[in-house]
Amino acid sequence: FQKYFPNLKERARHKKRYLLNNLSELNISTFHSLFASFLSTIPFAAGILPGYEIIDETEEGMIFDKIVTEFFAQAWKDDNLAEVIADLLEQQETRLRDSITSFFRDIIPWLDFLEELVNSEQSIKAEYETRRQNFIDSLYRLKNFLEEHQASACSRTTGSVNKYFAGFMTKLERLLKNGDMEMLQDRRIFPGVLDKKYFKSFCDNLGEAAAEFKKIKEQLEADRYKYLEALSDHEILVRLKPILKLHQLFQREKQRRNLITFDDIERYTIRALKNNPELDYLYFKLSKEIRHLMIDEFQDTTYCELEILEPIIAEITSVSPEEKSFFFVGDPYQAVFRWRGGTPVLFDLLIDEYKGKIEEERLTVNHRSKEAIIKLVNRILDKDDQVKPDNRGGWIRLESVGDFTDMDSGKEAVKARTAAIIKDLCENYGYDFSDIAVLVRTNEFGAAVADKLAEENIPYITASRSTILDDTDVQFMLNILRFLDNPEDDLALSKVLLSSVFAIKEETIVNLKATKQTIFLNLSRFHPDWEVSRKLKTLLSFVQFSNIYELIYAVYKELKLTLSYGLATLLDIALDYTRKGVNSLSAFLKWIEGAGRAMEVKHSRQEGVRILTVHKAKGLEFEVVIMPDIEWRLHSQENKKLLFSYEAEGSRPKKIYWRKIGKCIDGLVEAEEVRVKRDELNLLYVALTRAKEGIFILGFNHLKKSDGFWGGIIRDKLGGATFADGEISRKEKRSFPQPEEERFGMITEEKPFVREERSLYSPTERGVEIIESFRRKRIAYGLMVHYALSRITWLDDLNLDEVVGDIVETLKNTYARLPEEEKEVEDKVEPLLLETFQDPELRFLFFQDGRKVDCKNELPIYFEEKNRDVAAQIDRLIIMDTSVFIIDYKTGEEKDEYRHQMEIYKRGIKKIFPKKDIKAFLIFVEKERGKKIVEV
Question: Where is the UvrD-like helicase ATP-binding domain positioned along the sequence (predicted)?
Answer without folding.
Answer: 1-370
